[in-house]
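Quick one:
INPUT:
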């Protein structure tokens, strides 16, 4: 297990044997509020993770027992002039798009509060595992802004346009059971088991072809919002990436030889 720290509040742990990385929000005293520094370092960590071909799955977690992430650091925001806020905007966008653009499958392990930008970080992942303490929502309009970390685009892709509009316009918080019912989270597990279950899911995913995983994610994400035929062209391009890869050769051979694949990852 290797560990790297990006600034004071972002940690990346990698397990070379399981091929799973853990991206940890580690600002517990502030309930992982996303300051400009946190955003910058999160973007740096995502850049490094995206370049690591040995990582097959990334799990986004929190070191705080009470919260996944409470969103933007409003204390910092209160001290910024309009000009300063504008200058910080590209850094904030880089953090959220950094998570969204990770090329491997990503899983958020959510407990406690995941509000505003915190919920947007979870929405930027492919899958969300939550425990019964989770409270999610996009309350930005209640403080005079709108979701700016992808929420207006990611939430309707999860739950549909009308339901996303109701949740964003009302700024209401949604507790875990309803969040699961609405499709805001994918798995609801026992109290305190969100991280454990997220890693169990990550392990199941990581056993598959790394080339296949990245190509499948690329097809899924790139095809969002496109018509069927455009999406099928994207799928075909992703299929060709895998079909002529060493992973495909090994996968077919392992199936016929009734053994576990040893993925080349090329």
């Amino acid at each position: 297990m290797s560990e790297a720290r990006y600034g004071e509040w972002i940690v990346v742990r990698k397990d070379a044997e399981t091929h799973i990385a853990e991206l940890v929000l580690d600002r517990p005293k502030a309930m992982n509020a996303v300051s400009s520094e946190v955003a910058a370092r999160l973007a740096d960590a995502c850049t490094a993770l995206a370049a690591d071909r040995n990582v097959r799955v990334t799990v986004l977690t929190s070191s705080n027992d009470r919260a996944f992430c409470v969103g933007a650091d409003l204390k910092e925001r209160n001290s910024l002039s309009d000009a300063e806020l504008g200058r910080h905007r590209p850094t904030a966008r880089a953090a959220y798009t950094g998570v969204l653009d990770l090329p491997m499958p990503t899983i958020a392990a959510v407990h406690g509060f995941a509000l505003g930008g915190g919920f947007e970080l979870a929405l930027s992942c492919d899958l969300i595992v939550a425990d019964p303490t989770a409270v999610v929502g996009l309350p930005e309009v209640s403080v005079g802004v709108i979701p700016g970390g992808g929420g207006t685009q990611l939430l309707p892709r999860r739950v549909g346009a009308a339901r996303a509009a109701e949740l964003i316009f009302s700024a209401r918080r949604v507790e875990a059971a309803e969040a699961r019912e609405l499709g805001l989270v994918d798995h609801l597990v026992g109290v305190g088991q969100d991280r454990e279950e997220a890693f169990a899911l990550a392990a199941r995913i990581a056993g598959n072809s790394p080339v296949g995983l990245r190509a499948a994610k690329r097809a899924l994400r790139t095809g969002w919002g496109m018509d069927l035929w455009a999406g099928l062209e994207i799928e075909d391009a992703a299929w060709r990436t895998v079909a002529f890869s060493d992973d495909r050769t090994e996968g077919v051979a392992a199936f016929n030889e009734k053994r576990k694949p040893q993925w080349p990852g090329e």
